[in-house]
Amino acid sequence: MLSSPTTAAGADPQRPPFEVADVVREYGVAVRATHHVSHEQARVLHAIAQCRTAALGGHVEVCEACGTEQISYNSCRNRHCPKCQGAARAKWLAAEEALLLPVPYFHVVFPLPPLLNPLLRVNQRALYTLLFQTVARTLRKFARDPQHLGAELGITAVLHTWGQRLTEHIHVHCIVTGGGLTADGTQWRPSHPRFLFAVQALSQVFRGKYLAGLRRLQAKHRLHFAGESTELVAKEAWEAFLSQVQDRAWVVYARPPFGGPAQVLKYLSRYVHRVAISNARLVFVGTGVVRFLYKDYAGGGITKTKELPAAEFLRRFLLHVVPPHFVRMRHFGLLATRARQDKLTRCRQLLAVAAAAVTSTLPTTNPETPTAGFEPTSPARCPACGGGPMCAVAVLTPQRGIPP
């Protein structure tokens, strides 16, 4: 069994017993030697291995009441690191709060069929972008149709690429306003309180638009074929592949609607800045294996334990590293950057709500940090006496060139 890589003085009392970083430190070198690891994936492994260790420096903190000292090491701030999402999430929620309208919200999920995974794996940027575009165009097509709503929706879309067992499950979660603004800006048209659009019709349009987009990308020679998708270079194989994908079920599904902005914020606080697996789900790391918890949704949502060889665990984890600077959360419709504020102001006027009326019911967290790169890893109060505040008294410079 692996032990904690931190010393007793630097140990985090809230640290889970096992972390993805433990797997990376113990087995990362072997995985890089036996598997193809891209430059970006290698950067992620390096960052996770060094996160909150002496390699990145930190602070010495002292309790003002009892004098207890502890070390808080700096975070890597890589967006794929399970330990570095808290401050980013708090900062994002503070900005997102201002975009919410006092209306019900719907949750719609657009998954891609697994048959596309080999092609997606080697065309992430192009095909993830196409997925966002297709989702937005599908929802806006229905919303603008007078037979459905005849108005413009507000859409927040978040890309997830994983399933509970770290397998590839590419899908987009959409939070959609329960109503929209008419084209002339004179009306707010509410949707049905329990129903947005028929999911079967959404599925068919979504499939048609995405496959049309695939054809356009191939016609413009913007798709790359490698690995399992290599054979698709041939025209006959490509057409047969598209026909096969066309025949598969594309199942868009809708979850129960949110009651209002407070529930939306609670949901987004869990889904935005999320990584493929949290440290809390790991139950064992050692002897060449990793065990973690997952929910078996096909079996009624029962929590089970999955065991994988450490190399396979890391291989699956790295499947969910997105391209550099790729934006995994995007806004469309009323929330698109262009004219966003004007449209939201008009919506609030029509809803008879002042622009500053939407407030969060979630606890506030200050995302600011004392020094660039530093995120507090310890509780505000002393872990020894529980009373005194912990104050930074010294800066520890990064120890470059040492193992994390």
Number of domains: 2
SS content category: alpha+beta
Strand order of the largest sheet: 8-3-5-4-12
Radius of gyration, taken over Cα atoms and rounded to an integer in Å: 24 Å
The helix tally amounts to: 10
Overall pLDDT score: 85
Percent of residues in helical segments? 25-40%
Number of DSSP strands? 13
What does this molecule look like?
- The chain is of the alpha+beta class and 404 residues long.
- It has 2 domains: 1-84 and 308-318 and 375-404, no CATH class; 86-276 and 322-350, Replication Protein E1, Chain: A (3-Layer(aba) Sandwich), CATH 3.40.1310.
- The protein is 32% helix and 20% strand.
- The chain contains 10 helices and 13 strands.
- The protein has helices at 20-34, 39-50, 86-97, 117-121, 124-144, 199-219, 235-247, 261-271, 310-318, 340-350, and strands at residues 58-63, 69-73, 105-111, 154-162, 168-177, 179-181, 188-190, 253-258, 282-286, 289-296, 302-309, 329-333, 390-396.
- A 5-stranded antiparallel β-sheet has the order 8-3-5-4-12. Strands 2-1-13 form a 3-stranded antiparallel β-sheet, with no helix packed on it.
- Helix 1 (20-34) runs antiparallel to helix 2 (39-50) and helix 5 packs across helix 6.
- Mean pLDDT is 85; it is low at 1-11 and 354-378.
